[in-house]
Amino acid sequence: SSSGVNTLTGSFPKSHSSHGSEFRVTGTPLSVDQSPDSGLVSTPLPSSRFQFALWHGLEQCDVTGDQLTCPRVREPSEDELHLKERDGICLERGRSRRREEEGQRWEERLQENWENCLELNLSYQDLGDPFQQENFLRILRRLIRVEKLQLIDNSLTSLSSVRLPCRVLNLHRNHLVCLRQLPKLPAVEHLCLSENAIGSLGGLGALGNSPLRSLNLTRNPVTFTQDYRAVFSCLPNLEVLDGIPKLPED
Prior knowledge:
Layout (H helix, E strand, L loop, with lengths): L29 E6 L3 E6 L33 H9 L4 H11 L4 H7 L6 E3 L8 H12 L6 E3 L17 E3 L19 E3 L21 E3 L14 H4 L5 E2 L2 E2 L5
Parallel strand pairs: 3-4, 4-5, 5-6, 6-7, 7-8
Antiparallel strand pairs: 1-2, 8-9
Keywords: Leucine-rich repeat, Repeat
InterPro entries: LRR_dom_sf
């Protein structure tokens, strides 16, 4: 779930908030007011109630996920962090509990509407918590019709468990070290992997049956290997590598 919330509308949370979308005052941004007797007094900002809000948890909000330009994968609330600490951060147990608690109402899933999203930008997410990483992957798995997907600078190390039907995928500046960590891409035509840490062409064959026409591997160690441009022999549909069209010697 993302937190692309517009706090300027004056909307208030729906009475049936979804999992993890409690609106807390503690630990939220504060404003500072002058007090005549004790100096400075900190009071919560009016928008603090929306800190952990889901956009579809707001009243009179009919925006669907496919209408969001750059949604954000929200951080966990204090209650969710406390729950992890109380359980000793038992990963498998936590995942099982989240799966049970993630029984979102059907109307909320319809409003998220990731299944009908054709173009999405999920770049610069700062996925520092396992809670965010799981929700990020959950969104990716629901993108069954996406055509253009931007995943720039997310510190991603592997997407091998995900299948993406997109024609254009941008994974610029992540932490991929081999091509086997890519998602399954049966329809990809344009793939950008620049500024990762890919050191070999192992796993390139998985893209051999795709209609891939352009591939960008600039600023990866693999570009310094001998016969690097032999990539063309593995990808019969490839026309452009690192911005350079296929040459006769390729």
